[in-house]
Amino acid sequence: MSKVKAGGSSKNNHDSPGQRLGIKISGGQKATVGQVIVRQIGMTKRPGPGTKMSRNFTIHADKDGVVAYKTRKVKTYSGRSVRRTEVSVV
To answer: SS3 of 62, please?
Structure first.
C-alpha cells in the first residue's frame, strides 16, 4: 500500500502579470500633454502644478514642459506630517 495520499492538482498556482507601476518620466525629461508620468497605487506621489491625477492615481502631464520632483511635508488625517514627493511640469 501507498504511504502517501494521492497528490491531485494544486489549487493555488495562479499567477498574474506585473502591473508595470513606477516612474515613467524622470526629472529633467520633457513631457507632452496627457503623457503618463507616474503609475502608482495610492497617493505615494502627489500631483503638483502642471499635472493632474486620474481615478487610479496615475499622474499625467497637463501641459508641455519639463518634469520636476520635489519633496513636501503633508499633513495626514491624524495630523502627523510626513514627507511626500510632489510631481510638477514646468
So the answer is: coil
